Sequence to fold (223 residues):
Amino acid sequence: EADIYQTPRYLVIGTGKKITLECSQTMGHDKMYWYQQDPGMELHLIHYSYGVNSTEKGDLSSESTVSRIRTEHFPLTLESARPSHTSQYLCASSDPRGDYEQYFGPGTRLTVT
Amino acid sequence: QKEVEQDPGPLSVPEGAIVSLNCTYSNSAFQYFMWYRQYSRKGPELLMYTYSSGNKEDGRFTAQVDKSSKYISLFIRDSQPSDSATYLCASHTGGFKTIFGAGTRLFVKA
Fold:
């Protein structure tokens, strides 16, 4: 089983609040990713990181930001939550053998009211 | 046009049936082809991957890639209720970005 953790698992929060979704992995992977997944839709890459102090935006426009100060930790922050941010957020890391093998956390289901 | 297309289902089969799940893709540069399984309220987990064309077998699962027709398949033999999940196909150029299909929901009835 992959050692990648996300907290909280579920979050209901009001509009305008600042939130941070936590993601940690114990596998020592350099590459980490954040995806957004809506029911019946593809996973959309919103941020990725090649390693410490390296972060990039993905294809899906997102108002979130990420940081990578430690290899094992890749938090995602929304400065001002909106109902359009309601979604499932999945964190992943990839095996050094290849980016094709990604390990996913259990996800955070975010609802913004 | 989506780079990876997948029938969303749902697909419902009796226990013991052979299941065929399929995807098409449009990017000729894709080299790696993956199948992920996602249970309800969980993150996806890698089931199998293949490089370029051909077949790969792992227990009850067989992955098949036909690059000439840009067609990806996953076959599940002797399907079990525990196989009930959403199956995501995905492709990768060998660079950084993985493209996922929207997933096919599978129900295996006991």
